[in-house]
Amino acid sequence: MNMEKLVFRAIITLVIILAVFIAAGLYNGLKIQKYTIDSEKINNPIRIAQISDLHSCGYGDNQEKLINAIDRQRPDIVALTGDIFDDVLSDEKTEIFLKGIAGRYPIYYVTGNHEYWSGEYAFSIKMDILRKYGVIILSNELRTMEINGETINICGVNDPSSRTLYPDNPIKFNEEVEYVRELSRDGNFSLLLSHRPEFIDLYAKQGFDLVLCGHAHGGQWRIPKLLNGLYSPNQGLFPKYAGGVYEKGSTTVVVSRGLSKESSKIPRFYNRPEIVIIDLV
After folding, report:
1. For the domain bounded by 30-280, which CATH number is listed?
2. pTM recorded for the entire structure
3. For the segment 256-265, what is each residue's pLDDT rounded down to a tens digit?
């Protein structure tokens, strides 16, 4: 075989490998990402389904892919960690999703930045939709929940973008975090829902047992085992907290890679949309 044929075959092989690599990276089928968190405060297991950064994106007819995936995991709690709505896309798909899970699980929600970016009127409509389906909105507050023989404190803080709507609010974000932590200092397992992962040092300083965040979108582009994320909001290039589990002192932080698809201008790459399932044991 002459050199020209060898070179041609090598080029064709490389093109095929590259095409397969790119196609695999752009695959955005829904993923279930499971984590197990051990705590001396938990004797009977509790399962949490974390839904983050849906941005009113679609998952099959009537959101059936998303709803059925949650149902198959049989969670005890559903935690919505912000940007469930979008500031550009219609609320319709988010409302269909909420309707599909309403009344079947205790559902807790905290705001993300895009809810506030929608403007005051649209923001109020989004909050009304949540209330319509029985979602518990945690606006710098705590709810104590008894489940599976365990008592846990579920805290939630507003996203810092709330200042875009309420610029006269004198309370700073760190003060909000400190406030809900003080409410929860009773020995129960403390769970904080907060959209932003970049404040991990603040959460750890307060000593929450578990914090659930989103916002980073998995760094948008990933290369498994090499690059955990290329870019995320408020962290910039090569974000430290793009997605996964992070330990800081006695605090565990879980960052969801989220569910956004068509709301993003840049396609996800090796960064499948995910439902996060956390087993507290």
Report:
1. 3.60.21.10
2. 0.93
3. 999 999 888 8
